[in-house]
Write a structure and sequence with these properties.
The protein is α+β, with helices and mostly antiparallel strands. The chain is built from four helices and five strands. The termini are far apart. Bound molecules: zinc ion (ZN).
């Protein structure tokens, strides 16, 4: 296989945290700490994101797993309506953001403050 080490896989939640922190004017070193990644990788990833913006996410109506109300979900990872996401789950501070444990349903999401 030619080339260097395999590129690190960026998860969608890391991409969105990256975008969010850049939009908030965070420094690259702060972003690197938040993502536990070399800031140069963060910078390169952000440049790549700017060149290839996310396609609009298809949304579909799902029932919230918490309160049962229908809401527009961005995908299988998104099973809680906004009020429940804001208010439910164990929230711990760390990594410069908020780690939300969704009761094991969707794993761990990291969102910027
Ligand atoms: Zn809900």
């Amino acid at each position: 296989m030619p080339g260097g080490p395999p590129p690190r896989q960026w998860r969608p939640d890391e991409d969105s945290l990256l975008r969010r922190m850049v939009a908030d004017g965070a420094s690259w070193s702060a972003i690197g700490r938040a993502l536990d990644m070399d800031r140069r990788l963060c910078k390169g990833r952000h440049a790549a994101l700017l060149e290839a913006p996310d396609p609009p996410r298809p949304t579909r109506e799902r029932k919230c797993l918490c309160c049962g109300r229908p809401f527009l979900s961005e995908g299988a990872h998104n099973r809680l309506c906004d009020p429940c996401r804001d208010g439910a789950g164990e929230i711990t501070h760390g990594l410069g953001g908020v780690v939300i444990h969704d009761g094991g349903i969707s794993g761990i999401r990291i969102t910027a403050l």
